[in-house]
Every structure is written in structure tokens, then in C-alpha cells.
Amino acid sequence: MKTLLATTAAIGMMMAGILAATSHASEPAATPASPVYGVTLPQGYRQWELIAPALEDAPLNELRAVVGNAVAVDAYHRDSQPFPDGTVLVKLAWKRQPSAEFASATVPGAATTVQVMVKDSRKYAATGGWGFGRFVNGQPADEAQHRTCFACHEARAKGHDYVFTRYAP
Asked: Name one Pfam family in it (predicted).
């Protein structure tokens, strides 16, 4: 009986070690965070609802789409300002290029950036309640670029809770 218990205990310890090693090995790598604000790319953002498309002329020459999480979409539908904590907006941007199939159409070319705004009025009190993230190829842009985010939003969109994007019906 002692041998059976010892064997069972040994097998249990061995299985626990294997499970611990396996779960540790399969954990995703840490998500890169933006400098200054610590914002990360939200999981599943590519499946979020479209808030509005946008077109940027010179100098960037980009097609853009802003998507939002459920909190953002609800706030837009209710025309609720300021946006509630938990609102997350993501702007995807691509270089514009002419369509190969239809010359007068413009289509997305190479991806340029993914930009994120996260509303947390306590954590980001100094920047109107918003944290910002700008990512190129999945990696955060440099600190200098992040330091310009709030100044631009404050100068141009303060009256709309620092958000440029309006809901496209």
C-alpha cells in the first residue's frame, strides 16, 4: 500500500511538473506597451464594430478606419459625452493606392499604423482621461511620438472629449 501511495504521489508530482512546464511554454509573449501611457493593442480589435472610415490627404495619404469596443459603440449610439471609462478606440491606417481592377477606386496598400485610445479617467487624469498608443508592425512607436498625442487631441478635439472621430451612420 505504501508503495502504491508513493508511486501515485510520484506520478502526480511528475504530471504537475509537466503541466506547469507546458502551460508556461504556451503562455503568449508579453504584449508590447506604448511608452508614456502603457497602452497595448487590445485583443480581438480587428473584429470590433466600425465607428467611421476616414481619408487623410497629404502628407500622409492614408485610408483609415476607426473601430471601437462595445463600450465605445454604445456611447456613440447614445451620443454620450464624455465617453465612459472602458471606452477603447482603435484607428487602423493604410497607404492609399489605386485599385488594379477599377482605376478610379482607391484601396488600402501597406499598413502604416494602428493607434489606440483608452479611456480611464483616473489613470490618465493628466491627459483628459485618455491613454494613447501608436504601433507600427505591432511594436510601439517611440516615446517622442507618444508625447505629441494628447497635445494634438487637446488643441483640436477638446470639445468632443478629445476624440476626433464622429460616428458614421
From this structure: Cytochrome_P460
Residue 100's H or E segment, with its range, is none
Distance CA 42, CA 90 (A): 9
Digit-coded pLDDT (tens) for 70-108: 999 999 999 999 999 999 999 999 999 999 999 899 999
By residue range, what is the domain housing residue 145?
45-160
- Separation CA 77–CA 80 (nearest Å): 8
Q: What is the CATH number of the domain that holds 144?
A: 3.50.70.20
User: Domain check: are 24 and 51 in the same one?
Assistant: no
Same domain, 26 and 84: no
pTM score, two decimals?
A: 0.81
Q: How far is CA 18 from CA 14, 27, 32, 89, in A?
A: 6, 14, 28, 40
Same domain, 72 and 26: no
